[in-house]
Amino acid sequence: MGSLFTKIFLAFWLAAVLLGITLFALARLFGSEVVAETEQRLAGQAVSASALWETGGRRAVARWLHNLQPGSQPVLVDAEGQPVLRQPLPRRLARWLPRPMESGTHAVSSAHVLVVAALPDTSPPLYLVNEVAAGHLRILPVWTRFPIAILITGLVSFGLASLLTRRLRRLRQAAQALAAGDLNARVGHHGRDEVAALSRDFDLMADRLRDLLKGQQRLLRDVSHELRSPLARLRIALELAERDEARDKALVRIGKEADELERLIADVLSLARLESGQGQLEQRKLSLGDLVRQVATDADFEAQAKGRTVRFEGGEKLVVFGDAVLLRSAVENVIRNAVRHTVEDSEVTVTLGREGESALVEVRDHGPGVPEEELAKLFRPFARVGEARDRKSGGYGLGLAISRRAVEAHGGGILAENVEGGGLRVRISLPLASTVPVH
């Protein structure tokens, strides 16, 4: 009784057997009532026929029997079982008549009962005979009926149980394969019932788990790769520091590389927290215009030292509900990325507007752009797309990945597209505060 298959099988089988027993008992009960009613009716008809025989003779009885309801007309026979009137006597009825004739109920077959009633005060004795088809009986004997019923209901129950549990077995096998490390294990779902919905949810879970594990493996691989360069430079700087004439310059280099490592580790931790969904967002109503304007102003100050400028456009007051630090980081990473890649003596445009029920931040640079087939990779951790957008231009490829996770944590979206004539445009959409339910 431990498996679901056994429980379903026995439940269906028991239900079918109980149903058969119940129907059999009810048929027996109502069948007995039919026989009793026939006996009572035939006894009354025998009294009537006897009275007519005394007063009107053979012709009166024949006329009376002819006027009875079709289907319930008895046959009048003598003590030898021969018909007294010109009534046809079916062969099987002649074969079933008791010898000698006697009143009562006679079970003549497994599906028929013969009821005989004697006419009172007639000489020689006469009898009315009527056949009852007992619907509660079966052609097969009792010792044969039950094994066949059990076999049939058992086969039906087995088929139903197999149908219900076959997909559950596939689901269990897929779960075992996934637990054993097969990230490609899937159930496959057909239909619209509960088992199909469960299989569909399992496949979605398996897809998500595979993506998370592969992302984690890629992140560890990329972090290891990115750490090699600053560590190698640190080793060289330490070797130089051992020489008196290069000590000061080497110590400056060591400090710079330590800052780079600290920034890389901070970005990795930030991305890990966002990827795992850990940490509570300190959400409150924010003026997105003030936030973006401040970030653009700070970025412009730094960009001017590199021969570039950042211009902010947008006067509409838009309010969002979110974490100020996280949103500032998301916008700042996008703007700094644009400043890093836009050509010298060019301008990065930061535009704030409204699109439906969302606030829209657009950052457009005048750099080389990104190959169309690599746009989807732009927001992945440690992404390296295009020769002009690599580590030589600064950064480790984590900023835009952090921006994507930060925006998605606020229910928004982010995408990048090439601009005709050159450059890249990044669009950040965030739901306005009026459309965000406050918990």
From TrEMBL:
Membrane topology: Multi-pass membrane protein
Keyword rRNA processing set for record: no
Root EC class: transferase
Limits of the Histidine kinase domain: 222-434
PROSITE patterns reported in the protein's UniProt record: HAMP (PS50885), HIS_KIN (PS50109)
Cellular location(s): Cell membrane
Catalytic activity: ATP + protein L-histidine = ADP + protein N-phospho-L-histidine
Key word Transferase present: yes
Name this polypeptide is given: histidine kinase
